[in-house]
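Thread: "does anyone have the structure for this chain?"

Original post by V.I.:
We have the sequence but no experimental structure in hand. Need at least a predicted one for the grant figures.
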Amino acid sequence: MDNSSKFFSNRECEYFPCHRTKEPAEFNCLFCYCPLYVLGEECGGGFTFTAQGIKDCTGCEIPHSKDAADYIASRWGEIAARVAINIEEK
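Reply from O.Q.:
Generated one for you, tokens below.
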């Protein structure tokens, strides 16, 4: 898939690919910083927590899949609501 509004692969990035993948040609860098992170345990990805309690997303490829844009767009309402709650709490 070529670079487009739903897919971008930055092979020049020093961290590419930042997650293990069997398909580097389909690795999507569009969501380098995952918008699902704010959803915490409800993000739907394969994450763990470190011994310090920090969410570790290195086992998740959801934001880097070729269909990431559609999946993340389907969850924008949840993401926006969580961000609004976090802003109100500050």
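V.I.: this helps a lot. The two ends are 41 Å apart (CA to CA).
O.Q.: and The mean pLDDT is 88.
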